[in-house]
Amino acid sequence: MIPPGRRIQVEFVATPGEAGEALWSACFPPPLEGRFWYDALEDSGLEDQFAFRYAVIRADGEPVGIAPCFLHDVPIALVAPRPVGLVLGVLSRMFPRVGLQRTLFVGSPCSDEGSIGLVPGVSPAEVARELGAAVRAEARRLAAPMVVFKDFTEAGRAALAGLCGSGGFFPIVSYPGTAVALPAPDREAWLRSLPHLQRHNFLKKMRRSRELLTLETTVVERPFEPELGEITALDLGTGSARFDPNIEESHHHLVCRACGKVRDIKADIPGLEVPAGASQGFVISSADVVFRGLCDECQ
Predict the structure, then answer these.
(1) Does one domain contain both 16 and 147?
(2) 105/63 Cα distance (integer angstroms)
(3) What pLDDT does 258 receive?
(4) CB neighbours of 203 closer than 8 A, spacing ≥ 6?
(5) What is the DSSP letter of 291?
(6) Are residues 268 and 294 both part of a single domain?
(7) What is the CATH number of the domain that holds 30?
(8) pLDDT at 229
(9) 141, 289: one domain
(10) Is 150 in the same domain as 208?
């Protein structure tokens, strides 16, 4: 609980690393999607769809929370009545911005539930008013006329209830969290129920996706040595679980102390061995070296 009288401040930063690894770990402990999740999104080449921002919440200057946000130009045709969507589709060919609603979302574009990460002892209700005002100000700065707290749970909505009414927000059924009843008992029957052209285009896209990329996922409860040998778990002290698929080449790692970025480094280090008499009975088969410092972006 935040003691009465402490001032709540909200500052937006552009990268996960600027919020600090310690704050991410405190606000998004497992199994929540924390720093590793947003690092992955930032590195996924989604710049043409989403621009990510991170609201760092402070109480009298002390960091107490993170609210991940993203900016997205939502196609209005997704939610507009069909006649309106058809008109927007035609107009968008001449004026691309006509059919898009620039929106600042609080939450993740790829997560089923939105959340505000807070350190233990701090509740969303204690920071909701200041966060709501800061998000609206950031939206104005980004020329986004709409703000959405995306897919929050019942508990999250209760904490945000104070933003409704005079706060300018109102609750609405989430989209695209919509359940659609298929008119047929199985996939093949559903496909046959589609209009011919729609079915043809759908199957064409499915075939094309298989040609471009074949993925195979296997869940192994008790993996044998061959499975374990295909990937190596790394504990580099960054607070995130990392796995290294590079098991063929001997290499070491560079770790940024500020943002937690990890990079492979191929280098022979002469004299890298346990001194005589110091092995304590171990038979050494390999050695990994971790170099820590500041990456080019954090210097």
Answers:
(1) yes
(2) 21
(3) 76
(4) 191
(5) E
(6) yes
(7) 3.40.630
(8) 54
(9) no
(10) no
User: Which CATH number covers residue 265?
Assistant: 3.30.1490
CA distance 247 to 228: 11
Q: Are residues 84 and 145 in the same domain?
A: yes
**What tokens were used for 270?**
């002469």
Cβ neighbours for 271, distance < 8 A, ≥ 6 positions apart: none
Q: Is residue 286 part of a domain?
A: yes
Kindly state whether residues 128 and 34 are assigned to the same domain. Answer: yes
Say how far apart CA 96 and CA 30 lie, in whole Å. 41
Q: Tell me, letter by letter, the H, E, C secondary structure of the chain.
A: CCCCCCCEEEEEECCHHHHCHHHHHHHCCCCCCCHHHHHHHHCCCCCCCEEEEEEEEEECCEEEEEEEEEEEEEEHHHCCCHHHHHHHHHHHHHCHHHHEEEEEEECCCCCCCECCEECCCCCHHHHHHHHHHHHHHHHHHCCCCEEEECCECHHHHHHHHHHEHHHCECCCCCCCCCCCCCCCCCHHHHHHHCCHHHHHHHHHHHHHHHHHCCCCCCCCCCCCHHHHCCCEEECCCCCCCEEECCCCCCCEEEEECCCCCEEEECCCCCCCCCCCCCCCCCCCCCCCCEEEECCCCCC
CB 175 within 8 A of CB 78: yes
What DSSP designation does 64 have? E
For residue 136, pLDDT beyond 70: yes
Query: How many domains does the structure of the chain reveal?
Result: 3
Cα–Cα distance measured from residue 208 to residue 223, given in angstroms and rounded to the nearest whole number = 33
Q: Are residues 104 and 187 in the same domain?
A: no
pLDDT digits (tens, 9 = 90+) for 101-134: 899 999 988 877 888 999 998 988 899 999 999 9
Instruction: Return the residue matching tokens 């609980």.
Output: 1
Q: How high is the pLDDT of residue 24?
A: 94
196 & 143 share domain: no
What is the residue range of 192's domain?
181-215
Question: pTM for the full model?
Answer: 0.57
- What amino acid is encoded at 40 in this protein? A
